[in-house]
Specification:
This protein is α+β, with helices and mostly antiparallel strands and about 400 residues long. About 30% of the residues lie in helices and about 30% in strands. It has eight helices and 16 strands. It has helices at about 10-15, 150-160, 175, 180-190, 245-255, 260-315, 320-335, 385-390; strands at about 80-85, 90-100, 105-110, 115-125, 130-140, 165, 170, 195-205, 210-225, 225-240, 260, 335-340, 345-350, 355-360, 365-370, 380-385. Strands 3, 4, 5, 6, 7, 8, 9 and 10 form an eight-stranded antiparallel β-sheet that branches. Strands 13-12-16-14-15 form a five-stranded antiparallel β-sheet. A three-stranded antiparallel β-sheet has the order 1-2-11. Helix 6 runs antiparallel to helix 7 (about 320-335). It is elongated and about 100 Å long.
């Protein structure tokens, strides 16, 4: 599966950037995508306990000379520039303007061994209850059993935490397309073969009896090399009278993000190391499988020759002994021998463990759990030689 290198570079829409390892088999919906707001609420600003305060992701100063953030000064709505830290890699991701009177709460951590997100909390609170929140990222598609619509709605419902929350239809987002961070994502995604889309959907609900409105913003990444895709979402929420101003401040702060080139370089190195490990592991598995297959073929060829010799010499006198020998060999090899009464063909060394077996004119054998023909127009049912012997019809198939 193609890995997404560009997501770490997007502190998306509210400095909420993160990275994603795109091998679904490694944890498509595991704890890396847990809900950081499971016990929180929009109104009172209650956020989860910092699970990494005493652990390996303690925040520390960046290594000497690694990255010097822009000095604090006026910016979006007269605010100041703050550093967005990655506590897993112990280095800044970049700097972000925070408007005057607004407060940023962050708990971002990347696993330095896998490049996967460990913690993705990033919220910016306004002075009158406004909220800009990262909703995280998630894969979707047949490999994970969830389509795009289900996935973004699940992230949104979990993240906005509004009473009676309702969401409109997801559609193109011109306001997101105008952001510099989105244009950068499109440029970088295009170089790596990704299609990048900016989408938005309105949201409304209540908090402490007060009507709340806003938008869920989604940036979607798709590639011809992978089914489905990956989406990254954020939300902007406020009362209706404050929403236009909140959206304006949101755009100003999003456009103010300055990435740390050394963080991007570190993520690229982690991604390359992970890919190298995966490639090496794949090659090892392929070599082991080939060796196992060759050994199995040799065993089956030897077994088949021995069985034919015994059958020709002692068919009548040693039938019982031959049958015991055949079953013993199959028990060791984990295989079964089959007979197709429709064609008179025998098949040796099919993988055991299935309820029924089916063959086609090309000599292919398919095992099935249950007794339904996988394709009645193609397959005939084959009989296990064990069953033929037990039913007294051994000679008919031998």
């Amino acid at each position: 599966m193609t890995r997404l290198f560009l997501l770490p570079l997007l502190l998306l829409l509210a400095a909420c950037g993160s990275d994603y390892e795109g091998d679904y088999a490694d944890d498509p919906y595991g704890d890396s995508y847990g809900d950081p707001y499971a016990d929180g609420a929009y109104a009172d600003g209650a956020y989860p306990h910092d699970a990494y305060a005493d652990g390996p992701y303690q925040q520390g100063p960046p290594p000497g000379g690694a990255y010097q953030p822009v000095a604090a000064g006026p910016g979006a709505a007269g605010g100041q520039r703050v550093t967005i830290m990655d506590r897993g890699l112990q280095m800044p991701r970049g700097t972000q303007m925070v408007a005057q009177g607004w407060n940023l709460t962050q708990n971002l951590a990347t696993d330095p061994n896998t490049g996967q997100p460990v913690s993705q909390q990033l919220d910016i609170h306004g002075p009158r209850g406004e909220l800009i929140r990262s909703l995280g990222l998630a894969p979707y598609g047949p490999m994970v059993g969830s389509d795009f619509e289900q996935t973004w709605r699940q992230l949104a419902q979990r993240g906005v935490q509004l009473g009676n929350a309702s969401f409109g239809q997801m559609q193109r987002s011109p306001s997101t397309e105008a952001l510099s961070v989105y244009r950068r994502a499109v440029e970088m995604g295009g170089r790596k073969g990704f299609r990048v889309e900016a989408l938005e959907a309105p949201v409304q609900g209540t908090s402490n009896g007060q009507a709340i409105q806003g938008f869920v913003y989604v940036i979607r990444f798709t590639s011809p090399q992978m089914p489905g895709g990956v989406l990254q979402a954020s939300a902007v929420l406020s009362t209706a009278d404050l929403l236009p101003q909140t959206l304006q401040v949101f755009a100003q702060m999003a456009n103010s993000y300055q990435p740390n080139p050394q963080f991007e370089q570190r993520m690229e190195q982690i991604n390359q190391a992970v890919m190298q490990r995966q490639t090496a592991q794949h090659q090892q598995r392929m070599s082991a499988n080939q060796a196992q297959f060759n050994a199995h073929q040799q065993r089956m060829a030897a077994n088949s020759a021995a069985f034919d010799m015994h059958n020709q010499s002692w068919q009548n006198q040693q039938r019982s002994n031959d049958e015991m020998h055949r079953r013993t060999i199959n028990g060791i090899a984990g295989t079964v021998d089959l007979y197709d009464a429709n064609t008179g063909q025998s098949y040796y060394g099919a993988e055991s463990g299935y309820d029924s077996y089916w063959t086609d004119p090309s000599g292919n054998v398919v095992g099935a759990q249950g007794y339904d023909n996988p394709d009645p127009m193609r397959y005939n049912q084959a009989t296990d030689y064990d069953d033929l012997y037990d039913q007294g019809g051994y000679d008919d198939g031998w």
